[in-house]
Design brief:
Helix content is 32%, strand content 16%. By secondary structure, the protein is α/β, with parallel strands linked by helices.
């Protein structure tokens, strides 16, 4: 927190110093922007809002949900809005009969011109609650086939042979309670789009069984059936899974909720054959394969999918580090130069403030993403977002989207090289499909250590590692010698790397991977601060110098 206060103080000083030295007023007057939308992206938007206040940019943001934000935009009440999904070009067929009769999920026809700007990324995580012998299971791993079977009610018990094959050990005969969202949510949209594009036949059949029609490309309204329980809000889903009565539950949610509470999430098998977590670096690696329609392909500006995300390459990314259920959230911003009007309350002064805010967010601000529970936006999405920023009325972004030379985003360097692909940690051999659950690495190979069941640490724990549990208290279970001790955990993979206890089960000797520092450490705060100062210098100092020079000439008179 002291570093954040220092950041704000330095930013304020950066504005005050040029004015004091040059005897001039700041180049940009204070400007207020009103926004609504995504509760998923809300914590990040709020942090970045505070970061740019010393630049004279005031943002009034209400995190009332993506759907509500799109409504506020459509009636002209917002200067921008945040949404995890684009405007619906056709009705959402995932809505049940009662919801449809109440107007839920109807096609949206915005009357004001807009662009989609990627703002923050993350993984759809699968929180779960399993206990064996009074100890919480923290190292669950599942394949996409098994996950889809669970959320289409094909697998209903934790002792199912498919789960045993994925996990590497039989779990008790406990009924599975899939936890889904009851409200329209971006988390549902991203999760169902992943199922539609990887298991189309199975997901379509399930939706048709429940609703009478398929759910289309995605649905914000998950069609619940069987033992599923539907909860309103991401926080409520997380609380349900973590509650004492939630044993047997598994729910999809934004990773930030699990990371903040140190709760375990499933390691998901990726196309390269490794079980991975939705860490910041794994999501960033996966999203290097994302495409923006109309920027990365030939989608026409008249196409209803223009500027929307195409995540098909993310789902099939064969990089061993990628987390397959990765996505990003949008800002919907005004767009000039189309046949549609700009939102009525917007003007060039607001466009200047909004474009400068976006330049900070997409560049230096991404250093804060990891600490906030998100993943930084990689280079391809940064460029796409800055290209759309150029179409904002009054655009004053200081960053050139074609070179990105003054955009210190943590996923690439000034030459455009993808640092995240070069330096992100490779998965442990113990995370490769078919490796034993009780595993250690010897000479680069996964070796079965035998012993008893691991508990503590795992994917969650109480630590602060990149995966939400830097270190957890581990203990051997009955039959393994009963030893207890503190076990270090590889913060990238969640694998146990040491066991100082005696006689216990749990592995030892795993070599931790090299974790990419994507945010949260003092050097990252310093870089974010320097980035903000650089942006301030680019956009404020030249006008101030020009004003000073004009005053000097007028005072001196003609020569």
């Amino acid at each position: 927190m002291r570093l954040r206060h220092l950041t704000s103080a330095l930013l304020a000083a950066a504005l005050a110093l040029p004015a004091a030295l040059l005897g001039a007023t700041p180049a940009y007057a204070s400007t207020s922007l009103k926004a609504d939308g995504s509760s998923w992206a809300g914590p990040a938007i709020d942090q970045w809002r505070r970061d740019v206040q010393p630049m004279g940019i005031e943002i009034d943001f209400t995190g009332n949900g993506s759907a509500a934000g799109r409504v506020q935009w459509s009636i002209g009440q917002d200067d921008f809005t945040a949404s995890d999904v684009p405007f619906r070009s056709k009705p959402d067929s995932g809505v049940n009969g009662g919801g449809a009769s109440n107007g839920q999920g109807q096609a949206e026809n915005p009357v004001y011109a807009y662009s989609y700007v990627p703002i923050t990324a993350g993984g759809t995580a699968l929180m779960y609650h399993l206990e064996v012998g009074g100890k919480r299971v923290n190292d669950l791993r599942l394949s996409p086939d098994t996950i889809v079977d669970i959320f289409t009610n094909k697998i209903t018990s934790w002792d199912d042979p498919k789960i045993t094959a994925d996990y590497g050990r039989a779990l008790p005969k406990i009924p599975i309670t899939p936890v889904v969202r009851s409200d329209g949510s971006g988390a549902s949209a991203q999760f169902t789009r992943w199922m539609e594009h990887t298991h189309k036949g199975q997901w379509d059949a399930y939706c048709t069984q429940v609703n009478g029609v398929s759910c289309g490309d995605y649905t914000e309204f998950f069609p619940a059936a069987g033992r599923m329980t539907a909860q309103n809000g991401s926080d409520v889903v997380a609380n349900y899974v973590q509650s004492p009565t939630g044993i047997g539950a598994i729910g999809y949610d934004e990773y930030a909720f699990a990371k903040r509470s140190g709760w375990p999430v499933v390691k998901v098998l990726n196309p390269a054959g490794y079980y991975t977590l939705p860490t910041a670096s794994n999501v960033a690696v996966a999203l290097t394969a994302a495409k923006i329609r109309g920027v990365d392909d030939n989608t026409s500006t008249s196409d209803p999918d223009y500027l929307q995300q195409n995540l098909d390459g993310v789902y099939t990314n064969n990089d061993p580090r990628s987390y397959p259920i990765s996505s990003y959230s949008y800002l919907i911003v005004p767009r000039a130069g189309t046949s549609m009007p700009v939102t009525p309350k917007f003007n060039d002064a607001k466009g200047s403030a909004l474009s400068r805010y976006l330049a900070y967010v997409l560049c230096g601000g991404q250093h804060e993403a990891d600490d906030l529970g998100y993943s930084p936006i990689p280079r391809n999405l940064v460029r796409g977002g800055l290209l759309q920023t150029q179409h904002i009325p009054g655009n004053a972004s200081p960053v050139d989207p074609n070179t990105l030379s003054n955009c210190p985003n943590p996923t690439f360097d000034s030459g455009g090289q993808l640092i995240v692909l070069k330096n992100a940690a490779q998965p442990s051999p113990c995370d490769k499909k078919g490796s034993p659950l009780d595993c250690t690495v010897q000479n680069g190979q996964a070796v079965n250590t035998g012993g008893g069941k691991k508990s503590g640490g795992g994917n969650g724990g109480s630590g602060t590692g990149d995966n939400g549990g830097g270190a957890g208290a581990g203990s051997g279970d009955a039959g393994s010698g009963g030893g207890t001790g503190t076990q270090a955990v590889d913060p990238q993979t969640g694998e146990l790397v040491d066991n100082s206890g005696s006689g216990g089960g749990g592995s030892s000797g795993n070599a931790p991977g090299t974790v990419v520092a994507l945010g949260g450490r003092p050097q990252d705060w310093l870089l974010s601060t320097l980035t903000a100062l650089e942006l301030l210098g680019v956009v404020t100092v030249p006008p101030l110098l020009a004003a000073w020079w004009r005053r000097r000439n007028s005072t001196a008179g003609p020569r």
